[in-house]
């Protein structure tokens, strides 16, 4: 296609604004609230899910399993059969998290009673929301829905969330971007590795939390849930920080910057700044990676979750060079291969964010602002580090790997963009 | 000099034993006890100090300042003048930490009432000891001796140490080598950067500590002292772990492995396994590095402290390639320069320790077992990351940098070794 010089300048200017907003954003965690308190549109029978829109009958196994679990967790049904009936009869109103300023890992369930982190983008005033990470193993984000899963979610709702909310408020909020910047110097890329970030978050509220739990019999359980038992605790915070950041770059006319990448286990979808909240979707790919002992590719569910929002700000797969220890976990080859991934992402982004330097890349900033036209021109697809879910609901994570979005969605988005620009 | 083939084999075998002991060692933190409880030889007027032996009149400013502070802390004198008089009259018995299985950073004071970490080398049964890190700024390890310093030391003794001791015991002890291994994947080299290691240590006892402080008004102070206020908290734990490890490699006949490197601010000293506890000393060098705002080389005290014990096991400067964020702090140039330092240390050591892999060097183990004959043959001196003290007592740290031991001590040690071997 021919290049229109005016358009190029217009697009460049729009993209400059987009990345300036991304880089100027300050995502502050201000509390933990029940979902129904922060989403005015939420009803007792509302459920938000990961990825672009998807109908019940088209959902993958883990997503259906998670819906069944969320319905039971809310007491809307007692059994799996009752829950399925509600879904089939259209009694549950479901929609993507991204429609509500929210994100969730893997199946990404957010229902009425679930506590969500509340993050304010202090620079632009918008908010982002995400649930609390449940930990590893049998968890709802991988489609598990048994008693153990629901009991843990009730503990998060009734025990952890109120204490955490108070500690966060007492600490005066937590600047998540500062933690992300520090953790990049501590071996995390914040998609498949959040060891340092989880500890840095914990340290920030450690004193206040110790006061909140003082004298409680479950003090140890509460402290260890955050500080010790879950190396991926910060994943959901990295996601909600990224969501609050990326939403500030939405709806900039003429901008080709990707504002969201997301998967529902069946389709991969993106939003583009200049094209509002329109989804461009295509079937998801299967991650390539390493499987936990006893599992193979045969067991894997295709790519799923809103967690790819972290790659939109330049972390996750984009910052793999910061996290040599994740290389073996996701099967990315050598450390130098990981550094090359981080370097190559600069070819499809608008800029590098000097506020998020990568020490292992001589303090070069992370690649920021995925540009659909650069993706199409170079043929380089965004690199994503991801967990791999079992395709059957309830089994959980079976591996971790690397995945790319389908090229088709960038082509279609660019076509729509050109049309929109009158080209 | 001619090589004696029998000797070479004998030395190689001895060095193999030395590094096998280093690598098999498991340093477990088992508690925190007052110094006089763990050192049977300690009297009320005993003070242990960093480095090889040094007389009062020959000590540098910060070392003299620290002695004055320690004497006042113990209530042996009320004023500086009284403390100086006690030293001049020979009323204080002082000796190097290393003579007592102990280490201390910078001036390295250990006096009668000070609490010390107790680390057991579970593999070989020997013990190591080190004080609790005081934090940054005006502290005794840099020679400060005012009321603020002594008040903080009393708080460590009376408040923190008993609580920490209970939490450590309740947690069943803490394997410090595991933490060191993890922190190498999280941007620490554990001499000038201990951010991750400090948090990893804290996480290990977080639940138990929350129970110990429950209901206390100073719960927040105690938790934050460890979790939040001092990124170098783990330095003293890395040192005592290294001491407990290295002492297991002492006194192996025919071994040329360095078992301790240490500085008293005037002289740099080493011990060599096959030569027992004999010190080989020469004047210390001045670190080359970066100074905090307002300070220059003019303000710097020469190289000081027992902290170089960490380089003996292969961390600190030897593992600088793991800690890209430390590169700017110590003025080591680029990340690739740091990686080259870590690589070059392999030329003067007996082996690489696969249990302490460096992710940034494609998981190559740290260089372990400094061999005096290799140092002399290659002319490559061990690389040390170090803090720089102000030369006047009481001002504190003024910078950080890189330093090497004087070559003379390796030459003299090798000469003594050859003589000992009858060569």
Task: Explain what this protein looks like in three dimensions.
The structure is a homodimer of 423-residue chains. Chain A is of the alpha+beta class and 423 residues long. Chain A has 2 domains: 5-22 and 249-420, v583 fold; 26-238, Enterococcus faecalis V583 fold, CATH 3.90.1710.10. The first copy, chain A, is 38% helix and 21% strand. Chain A contains 14 helices and 17 strands. In chain A, helix 3 (61-73) crosses helix 5 (147-170), helix 7 packs antiparallel against helix 8 (219-227) and helix 13 packs across helix 14 (407-420). In chain A, 60% of the residues are buried. The mean pLDDT of chain A is 95. The A-B interface holds A 182, 185-188, 195-196, 199-200, 202-204, 206-208, 210-211, 213-216, 219-224, 227-228, 324-325, 327-328, 334-336, 359-360, 362-363 and B 182, 185-188, 195-196, 199-200, 202-204, 206-208, 210-211, 213-216, 219-224, 227-228, 324-325, 327-328, 334-336, 359-360, 362-363.
Key structural traits:
homodimer; 423 residues; alpha+beta; v583 fold; Enterococcus faecalis V583 fold; 2 domains; 5-stranded mixed β-sheet; globular
